[in-house]
Design brief:
Belongs to the SPCS1 family. InterPro entries: Spc1/SPCS1. By secondary structure, the chain is mainly alpha-helical. The protein has a domain of about 60 residues. The chain is built from 2 helices and no strands. The longest helix has 29 residues. The N and C termini lie far apart (about 60 Å). The mean pLDDT is about 90.
């Protein structure tokens, strides 16, 4: 169980945006392809299975925090003590 703290579990903001784009693209393409093939073969099950397989594929692509979703780490500001006198007051 010592390996659990070493697993990366975060995704940066750019990665979140990319994950949303990937999700919507995969779902839309699989649903459209499923509708076309389902209509052509007159089988609604093709439409449903295509959409569900697109959902499963998109979950596989975006749910784990893959390295391509963590390419832009957040740069945090350095800690400044409260009331440390580092701010100068302007005179009017």
């Amino acid at each position: 169980m010592n390996f659990l703290p070493k697993i990366e579990t975060h995704v940066d903001f750019v990665g979140q945006s990319l994950a949303e784009k990937i999700y919507w693209t995969v779902i839309t393409l699989s649903a459209a392809a499923g509708f076309i093939f389902g209509y052509a073969f007159q089988m609604f099950s093709i439409t449903v299975l295509s959409t569900l397989s697109g959902f499963a594929l998109s979950c596989l692509l975006i749910l784990p925090p893959w390295p391509y979703l963590r390419r832009h780490p957040i740069k945090w500001l350095k800690h400044q003590p409260a009331g440390g006198g580092s701010h100068k007051k302007k005179k009017n």
